[in-house]
């Protein structure tokens, strides 16, 4: 069997974790486990895995306790590693307690941290609107819907989450910073933390691609590299 590489992409709300992880999955043939989609599917009766085999992890910020997150992770990880060369998940763990719980399930090989200036994040989050049923995210500045206010695929209305409204963003970012610090210190002490700083995902991505290319062979050559 191929060696399994388990990686996570961490970063503040609005840092582009999902975009980076989707690019990793596409370029390296990884399975993407999105922290958030699992909770929506589980609570909505979606069943957890779609026809394409995409698995997800519940979001730490959306769950009242670690057990919900970890039980979902434990159920899905063996299937992911059996079916794919490697797996990458987004935005989990978000607290030291979740990191310690994840240790009891598997040992991470790589942690990618996205460091985006908080002023940039405030602007991004305040311009973010979502399609509630699917979790598709739009940004009115650089990724707007084709028709203002509605989802491209379904035509259903988009909404702005309460915690994306300008008055809530600053508090979210402070909360993330406090919770993430011990998580980052833990992974740094293990020598598996790789941090990338910038204001644009397209400028950070080539460095992430180079790092992953040193660990596993890409299945799709990135034209920008």
From TrEMBL:
Q: Which UniProt keywords apply?
A: Kinase, Nucleotide-binding, Transferase
The family line of this record is: Belongs to the adenylate kinase family.
Which Pfam families does the record cross-reference, listed alphabetically? Answer: ADK, ADK_lid
Task: Classify the source by domain of life.
Answer: Eukaryota
Q: What is the lineage of its organism?
A: Eukaryota, Metazoa, Chordata, Craniata, Vertebrata
Identify the Gene3D superfamilies for this entry: P-loop containing nucleotide triphosphate hydrolases (3.40.50.300)
Give the Adenylate kinase active site lid domain ranges: 128-163
Record keywords: Isomerase included? no
Single GO term (MF): AMP kinase activity
Report whether NADP shows up as a keyword of the record.
no
This one is known as Adenylate kinase active site lid domain-containing protein
Positions in coiled-coil regions:
none
Origin organism is Opisthocomus hoazin
């Amino acid at each position: 069997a191929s060696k399994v590489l388990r990686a996570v992409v961490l970063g503040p709300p609005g840092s582009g974790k999902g975009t980076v992880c989707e690019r990793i999955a596409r370029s390296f043939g990884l399975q993407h486990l999105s922290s958030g989609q699992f909770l929506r599917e589980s609570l909505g009766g979606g069943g957890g895995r779609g026809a394409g085999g995409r698995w997800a992890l519940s979001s730490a910020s959306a769950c009242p306790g670690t057990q919900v997150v970890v039980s979902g992770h434990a159920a899905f990880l063996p299937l992911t590693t059996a079916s794919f060369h490697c797996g990458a998940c987004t935005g989990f763990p978000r607290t030291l307690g979740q990191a310690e719980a994840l240790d009891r399930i598997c040992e991470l090989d790589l942690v990618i941290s996205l460091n985006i200036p908080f002023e940039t994040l405030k602007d991004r989050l305040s311009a973010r609107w979502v399609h509630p049923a699917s979790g598709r995210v739009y940004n009115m500045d650089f990724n707007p819907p084709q028709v203002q206010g509605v989802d491209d695929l379904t035509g259903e209305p988009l909404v702005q989450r309460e915690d994306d409204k300008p008055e809530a963003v600053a508090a979210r970012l402070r909360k993330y910073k406090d919770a993430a610090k011990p998580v980052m210190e833990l992974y740094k002490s293990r020598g598996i933390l790789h941090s990338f700083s910038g204001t644009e995902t397209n400028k950070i991505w080539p460095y992430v691609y180079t790092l992953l290319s040193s660990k596993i062979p890409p299945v799709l050559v990135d034209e920008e590299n």
